[in-house]
Amino acid sequence: MPPRDPEAGTNGTNGTNGVNGHSDEHTPLLGSAVRSDDGFVKRHAKEGWNATMSVLTSNYVNVFLFFVPLGIIAGILEWKPLTVFTLNFLAIIPLAALLSYATEEISLYVGQTLGGLLNATFGNAVELIVSIVALQKNEIRIVQASMLGSILSNILLVLGCCFLFGGMKYKEQTFNSTVASTMSSLMAVAAGSLIIPAALYNSFNNNFDPIKNPDQYQHHTDSILLLSRGASIVLLILYVLYLFFQLKTHTELFSDEHAEEEEPETPTLSVMGASMVLVIVTFMVAVCAEYLVDSIDSIVATTNISKTFIGLILLPIVGNAAEHVTAVVVATKNKMDLAIGVAIGSSLQIAILVTPFLVILGWIMGREMSLFFQTFETTVFFVSVLITNYLIQDGKSNYLEGAMLLGIYTIIALSFYVYPDNEQVKGPGFPL
Fold it and tell me: Where do the segments described as Disordered lie (predicted)?
């Protein structure tokens, strides 16, 4: 994006604005006019006020922001679990919209490629924080469910909504096929990293009873852990190489092909202002998500909803609300490269960065966190990646493809709804 002319300016769309503090006078709709003859303190106070009003009026769902303090107070005072869950669920909605707004502001400075990467990173902060807390408590099942659910939510639900709502506005949308091909290949590698430990475990334990042979079972478990930790190191190296490939050596392949066809948009916030919003909102999302997760056990005990369904379906939807809002908004603006970068990029980060990182962290903490998932979950992941890769490899999308992704996600959600909580789970991190 070429630098903006600081002398140009009409109505706050170019040049002067109260956020960046150029020399001309600017009067925002709900802000205060910033004049060149204002004193230092007064000028920066007006700029801060204008920036705050720009953030608060950026989306109509921001009227739900009052649920944020209510949700936090409910968690601190230990109100009824259902009340805590509902308030914090509603609180995350406007916070996700603010995260979407701030990320789009930054993407106007750094471009869609890095903007999508930033949004995926901030969007995964919730899952990472919750997983580290669960890992410390040796809740391996919760960690794995959160990781798998987040991946499925992004590549099926979020991407499906992008294709569907974007396809309702445009007959056909295009995106960078090279980016799609690279991401789909890496997702296939991630799927393989889960299939191989599951296949090896089933091969080990096909012809013996682990209850009668605990020593042999422990030997097999140690082998799976060794494989998982080695594979995690390889995946982390691949992620670093992917970043180097994307941001350094092959940046031209990831450039926005349609950038020259569109009128350049002018950011409302400065880079520093948008970055502060990202950090503050991400922290608030993490706080609300923590109280929301803490209320799950009580909800499971008082309702017919299983912990498996909550962990794999409901929580990822809440945790990925930021990516969901951002991706759908930019898709309806025909910015499919950014939408793909947010949706699939977030799944990619979970699969080859966050999950391997948690395996290594568990190794350091003495927890048996591994890449071994149950057979049913591994199959679901493989099918989801396969379908997604087929739909994005041509670099084109329409509403029917979006409906396909949402359809398979609904089927998977139903399967997890009937998946029993008392299913016997075996493997590293799960006692016999």
Answer: 1-28
